[in-house]
Amino acid sequence: MLKTDILEDFLIENELGYYCVYGDFYIDPKYPVSKAVISHAHGDHAVPGHHTIFATSNTIAFMQHRFTKQPLNSYFPKEYKQDFKIGEVQISFIPAGHILGSAQILMEYKGVRYLYTGDYKLQEDSTCEALEYVKADVLITETTFADPAVIHPNPIEEIKKLNSTKLNIMLGCYALGKAQRITNLINTYCPQKIVYTHHNIAPIHRIYDEKGFVKLSYEIYNRKALKDGQDKIYLVPPMTFHNYFRAKNVVRVFASGWKRLQNYNDMTLFISDHIDWNDLNHFITEVQPTEIWTVHGEGIHLKHHYEGKIKVRNILK
After folding, report:
1. Could you list the residue ranges that cross the membrane (predicted)?
2. How many CB atoms lie within 10 A of CB 259?
3. Which domains does the chain have, with CATH numbers?
4. How far apart are alpha carbons 16 and 75 in whole angstroms?
5. C-alpha neighbours within 13 Å on the C-beta side of residue 218
6. Per-residue model confidence as pLDDT tens for the chain (317 residues)
């Protein structure tokens, strides 16, 4: 593959999102568009109002739960590795390992393979499809934690920290993906603890129970839940966690890879659903790209690391 075969403007960022002019579609657009290809159902990647939506069936299930006014006939579910075309661009979804239904988006045009990762992780997570590797000429990767200083710890050892106290725990986590992964980790490695979910998290748990890979053990939170007994964990979304300070005799914990979200808590819990520096470089080795285009973060460390080896740049705007 010659570098000159790569179209530098194959995917560009504009005010609506990431646009492919050669297929006339957007990837993870921030505002309503005619044709949207969605990598996964988190709110910074999936919004309502598109005329046509291509995504995995599990991603569509979460979108239908959130976007009740979105017409059902606007969804076009695709299985993993199922080829389909938009314009002259051939597309397929590859498991990304981020959350249930998450996908890398492999695009092929005039013999060149462009791989948009979306959000992804290599760490084991039995609640969602495991990441799969494919070769690509251009890797378009998220760079949330693309920093040599960021190495995620073992999630099993992190979750076992919760065994160090019998006090009840208020655990902040994102409602989609993180809460289900945390529930399964607690069920597996802290089996004596009872998991209670906030009412905004419970419906997502039910979708995971219906469409996922493991059965989650949990109860719905009620006002008396944390007042009686010990060894209980209450999973709450970030807004609730950050606004609730009145609880007494409760250990405050937030599950995240961000250090700033560990500040002022009673215990750290570094569990991330994004790749760290080591996993990113392993992933690059597997994909074997000629060029790397970076999105969703800072790519300067990658640029320096691969200087003289692989061309690295931010996606064209």
Report:
1. none
2. 11
3. 3-148+274-314 (3.60.15.10), 155-269 (3.40.50.12650)
4. 19
5. 31
6. 445 599 999 999 999 999 999 999 999 999 999 999 999 999 999 999 999 999 999 999 999 999 999 999 999 999 999 999 999 999 999 999 999 999 999 999 999 999 999 999 999 999 999 999 999 999 999 999 999 999 999 999 999 999 999 999 999 999 999 999 999 999 999 999 999 999 999 999 999 999 999 999 999 998 888 887 899 999 999 999 988 766 678 999 999 999 999 998 999 999 999 999 999 999 999 999 999 999 998 899 999 999 999 999 999 76
